Structures are given as structure tokens and as C-alpha cells.
Amino acid sequence: MLLLAAASLVAFVLLLYMVSPLISPKPLALPGAHVVVTGGSSGIGKCIAIECYKQGAFITLVARNEDKLLQAKKEIEKHSINDKQVVLCISVDVSQDYSQVENVIKQAQEKLGPVDMLVNCAGMSLAGKFEDLEVSTFERLMSVNYLGSVYPSRAVIATMKERRVGRVVFVSSQAGQLGLFGYTAYSSSKFAIRGLAEALQMEVKPYNVYVTVAYPPDTDTPGFAKENQTKPLETRLISETTSVCKPEQVAKQIVKDAIQGNFSSSIGSDGYMLSSLTCGMAPVTSITEGLQQVVTMGLFRTIALFYLGSFDSIVRRCMMQKAKSETIDKTA
Predict the structure, then answer these.
(1) Strand pairing partners for 18?
(2) Residue 3 pLDDT > 90
(3) What CDD domains does the record tag this protein with (predicted)?
(4) Known catalytic residue at 256
(5) Which residue among the candidates 42, 149, 172, 239 is catalytic per the annotation?
(6) Catalytic site residue from 53, 151, 183, 186
(7) Which candidate in 68, 73, 190, 231 is catalytic?
(8) Do 63 and 39 meet the contact criterion of CB atoms below 8 Å apart?
(9) Over 60: is that where the pLDDT of 20 sits?
């Protein structure tokens, strides 16, 4: 049996080598690189800009609010490592007009050179039961979270392919790996990013351009605080089963994975498990990564079933509690 298992493992590794040239990409050098961060005026986006700036990059911040942009610029500039670094601010809604997005990207490239790394971090979240959410909410979230990533990526990808170098980062969410109560609008928009990223990676990999999809957990940001204001009880209780991460921690991991050209970027043990469970036909950066996913799949699926059972139990308890409250109100 041991010999059979060993032979199967060797055959699998050889098969992987034949199917695809899984050679890890050369790390992207950030000193002097031009990094564009959308949604860069606060939260994870701002922390990613700071992390890149600490490593010597030139930064273009893109967001809607000019005042927040200027405030973020001052904060980022405190972390410079040389006097040549620049932080450029551009105010635009990346989800509304592609031609406008394309123009501001051109302006940024004229001032700071070709974009070496694009981080699509602009996004928003609204939670609520499917039947309670306005149809406009679904349209708005798809526009901001999905098209708000499509437009900037479309504006930089041709130049990256011509130069044979580049990184495109999409900040999704753990809600883009599994659907949860209250996230019918939000999860849909974040799942869409995964499909975009997988297809785009297959197109640009021959040009030495690499795509990274980040799946951060709940993170202590202004956007998360705003999201909590509309969360149904069930969603809040499910979210409380895991801890809230610091944006600085999330940003460091995303930048690290983007530099290395890793397709998937996750945080913590839960994030690692989710990424392995949902890898499907996603690209891998190394043979080791592929083997880890194969070996851990069964165990992680077993653990996931317990999580899903726990989440279903929370939903049932909330439903029973609501029904009990309604009964008391009727008899009062």
C-alpha cells in the first residue's frame, strides 16, 4: 500500500509538470515601482499604499473624496525611505465611467511612469435579507465592487503586457468564497471578481503579468463599521464566530503575495482553509501549493461541514426567537 501511495504521488507530481510549466514568477521589485491603489484613502487600501511606500514605491491614490485623499497622502508620506518618492492623489469614481478612469490612469503614468502594480481596493458592502434589499442595492454593489475593478484593470493591462511585467490585485472578501446569510448582494459582487481574475490570469500569464485575488476576513475599517449598521442579527452572529483583523496585518499579507505573484492571498488559518477548499480550477504558483491543496482537501471539507452546521443553527435560532417574539406581541 505504501509503495502504491508513493507511486501515485510521484505520478501526480509528474502530471502537474506536464500539464503546466508551474514556475514561480520572479518577485516584483517595489523600490522605484509605480503602484496604483484604488479605494486608497482609507482602510485596507490606505494600509496597502503605506506598506508599498515603506518599500520604496511611488504611489497613486485613487478615491472619490478629495479631503480624505489629501489626509491619506500626508499619512503615507510619513513613511518615505528616500526623498524621491511621490504620492499622487486622483479623485474619481472608478465604477462610473471607463473613459474617465482611463484618462486619470494615463495622467498618473505620465507623471510617475508605467504602472507596475494595480491594487483594486475600491468597494462597499451592504447587508440585508434578500427580499429586504432594494434592487438598486444589487446594481450598486455590482457596479462598485465588480466594474470598479474591471475599469482600472482594463486601463493598465495593455501596457503591462507590452512591458512584460506587472501585478494586478483584486481585493475580494471571504464572502467571495462562500455565501452567507445577509450577503446575497455583496457575495455576488465579490464572487464575480474571482471569475474575472481566473480568466484574466490565463490571458496575461504568458506576458509575465500576474494576478492576485485577496480574500480578507472582517477587518477593522471605516467600511466595516458602516456595514455593521445594517447587518441582520444572523449575519452579525455568524461574523462573530471569527475575530476581526487589523488592516495593517491584511495589507502586509496582500502586498507580500502580490510581490511573489501568488494567485490567492488569505489571512490566518480560516483564510488558508477557505482558499484550499474553494481552489477549484484556480491557478497555482508552485507544485507545493497544488500538493497542499490536494492533501488537505478532505480534512478541510470535514471541518467546513461543522462550520456550516453551526451557521445553519444560528439562523434557525434567530428564526425561532423572532417567531416567539411575534407570538408574544400578538397575545399582549
Answers:
(1) none
(2) no
(3) KDSR-like_SDR_c (cd08939)
(4) no
(5) 172
(6) 186
(7) 190
(8) yes
(9) no
